[in-house]
Design brief:
By secondary structure, the protein is α+β, with helices and mostly antiparallel strands. 33% of the residues lie in helices and 12% in strands. Strand 8 and strand 9 form a beta hairpin.
């Protein structure tokens, strides 16, 4: 467990040293010293450390690091949003025109639709596992992974690897808000039924595998296309072009949300990909700079940060940037 900011569902703020400088979570002295910097990376079961944290901030909420806790949580949202085309409601599953979708408005409906297509019970009604109602009207359905050797990743929320529209997954590389945590919008309340996570149902395990939620063994980032130089390299000009974009990403650390972080990181990585492909910058160096800025701003989503960076670098590499200057 780790502290959340009082009245919020986001992690407690880093110490000034971690907040003001870009650095990797690995090797940060704050974790060894027992500070709560870097979100779920600081999560612990040490009762003395836990007592010290909440003695210092009694109104802090409680976050649970899903990976170390061996949790897979189905995050069902009920946000007011335009319903997408039926081809985008269930990840990788076409919905025939004969299926009546009238009244579908949220993740509760898409999860029920997925369960019906698989001829399985709707997890929303699963009283045999812990279910937590969120202040926004959503639901967290907690499960324990009975096969720890198979590690599941969090959804990015983009719909590409989400389980369904408005149905995400919280697992390795993320955290979940514990019941009884209070925010300015309300309290996370456990529903009637079980108070402990049940084993993940086999059919949901299969759906997570199908939708790409299984974590692959660590591997290096995909190589960018070879540089297509038309003239000499201009590294100084490239650094000047990229620096303000990296700074915009790093500045997102000042607020946990509402900063357009994903868009800014994508833009910086896309630009970097073009500069690398044109031969102005070194790929490994610039990727490390992007990771440092991103993980400083959003340390609780390092896996997602890496995915955004690698995807945008590859996309930018298709269009090498031509620069003028020394």
């Amino acid at each position: 467990m780790h502290p959340l900011a009082p009245g919020r569902k986001t992690p407690a703020a880093n110490c000034p040293q971690c907040r003001d400088r870009n650095h990797s979570v690995k090797g940060c002295p704050c974790l060894e010293a027992g500070r709560w910097c870097h979100s779920f990376h600081a999560a612990t079961l040490d009762p003395k450390r836990i007592d010290a944290w909440w003695a210092a901030e009694p109104s802090a909420g409680v976050g649970i690091a899903c990976g170390p806790a061996n949790l897979v949580v189905i995050d069902v949202d009920a946000h007011q949003a335009s319903v997408p085309d039926r081809s985008r409601l269930l990840s990788g599953i076409p919905i025939h025109d004969s299926v009546n979708l009238e009244g579908l408005t949220s993740g509760f409906d898409t999860l029920a639709l997925l369960a019906a297509l698989r001829r399985q019970p709707d997890p929303v009604t699963d009283r045999d596992t812990l279910r937590v109602r969120t202040p926004s009207g959503g639901l967290h359905i907690w499960y324990r992974n009975p096969r720890p050797e198979v590690r599941f990743r969090c959804s990015t929320g983009s719909g590409k690897v989400a389980l369904a529209w408005q149905v995400d997954v919280r697992a390795h590389g993320g955290y979940i808000v514990a019941p009884t945590t209070r925010t300015k919008d309300g309290t996370y309340q456990a529903e009637e039924g079980a108070r402990l996570p049940a084993p993940l149902p086999g059919w949901l395990h299969d759906e997570l595998v199908r939708t790409g939620h299984v974590m692959d063994p660590p591997r290096s980032a995909p190589a960018l296309p070879a540089a297509r130089r038309r003239g000499r390299s201009r590294p100084k000009a490239a650094v000047r072009a990229l620096a303000p974009l990296l700074e915009q990403v790093a500045q997102c650390a000042a607020a946990p949300e509402g900063t357009g972080f994903t868009e800014k990181l994508n833009r910086a990585a896309y630009t970097a990909g073009g500069l690398v492909a044109a031969g102005h910058l070194d790929e490994a160096t610039v990727r490390d700079q992007l990771l440092q800025a991103a993980n400083c701003a959003r340390p609780w989503q390092t896996t997602r940060n890496e995915n955004i960076i690698d995807t945008a670098l590859a996309a930018g590499a298709v269009r090498p940037f031509r620069l003028e200057g020394p």
